[in-house]
Amino acid sequence: MRKKIIAGNWKMNLNPEEAMCILERSKMFPAESLPNTEIMFAVPALYAMMAENSLRETPHSVLVQDVSFQDDGAFTGEISVNMVKASGLQGALVAHSERREYHNENNISAGKKIKKLLDVDLVAVYCIGEKLESRKNKEEKQIVKTQLTEALSGFEVRNFDRLVIAYEPVWAIGTGEVATVEQISEMHHFIREELSKLFGAENAEKIRILYGGSMKPENALEIIQIQDVDGGLIGGASLKFDDFKSIILSSI
Ligand code: 13P
Q1: Does residue 213's CB lie within 6 angstroms of at least one atom of ligand 1?
Q2: Helices assigned H by DSSP within 120-172
Q3: Ligand 1 neighbour 234 (Cβ under 6 A)
Q4: pLDDT tens digits, one per residue of 34-65
């Protein structure tokens, strides 16, 4: 059975004290309280070591929000996969829609990052999802299929537990607008089918597929119960621990 993942993506939010407060409060969930759920925090790079120090004795994971596909060298402002690994962090988000929109991220660069992360046994949370215009033109499946195949074809995955897909329809991110149960169900099923074509059915069954886009305490339970939804990638509602806690509790 796939363990659920509840991951907070803090984006560029929270001061150090607010961040620390959330991390400390998350310790109310020791391993035995969450037999079937993993908690992850995708934090600003500057807070990653603080988060790692705070959560070292817990089962919760710390991720960075992006990583370079270069090994090392003159790449000002970047972080390498080896730095993430050596710092004791568990992985990275890859190709969040905001990286695609503002930082030229594409499926090919995303694929290189995912390969690097998986090669050193880190978690890669690969973010995909269509924009509103594509949804209106009924092109959402084609977009998602291309995002999956262009990034994930052409390399071997050893550990499918560490490859995580986050389906985040761009029109539902930070807008308060949530995809309907039918839309989520249909897309997650489609994603699993495409993963099955890429990696075989048995391996595709091991990959967690998260939903992201205005997930909050009021809708979390309904979304998490959908077949092929293995948890959530949560932006706004991960910035208030009480909201994040409710979402975690919905996953139990
Ligand atoms: P919101 O939960 O704020 O819509 O953000 C979703 C998201 O982008 C998570 O990566």
Answers
A1: yes
A2: 132-136, 140-152
A3: yes
A4: 999 999 999 999 999 999 999 999 999 999 99
Name the one residue in this structure whose structure tokens are 């074809």.
Answer: 153
CATH number among 3.40.1170.60, 2.40.10.10, 3.20.20.70, 3.90.70.10, domain 67-250: 3.20.20.70
Cβ atoms of 93 and 9 within 8 Å: the answer is yes
Report whether residue 123 contacts ligand 1, using a CB cutoff of 6 Å: no
- Express each pLDDT in 93-123 by its tens digit: 999 999 999 999 999 999 999 999 999 999 9
Q: In whole angstroms, what is the distance from residue 136 CA to residue 1 CA?
A: 35
pTM of the model: 0.97
Whether residue 199 contacts residue 151, with contact meaning beta carbons closer than 8 Å, is answered with: no
Choosing from 60, 96, 105, 130, the catalytic residue is: 96
Looking at this protein, which amino acid is placed at residue 92? A
Catalytic residue among 52, 168, 188, 194: 168
Residue 168: active-site member: yes
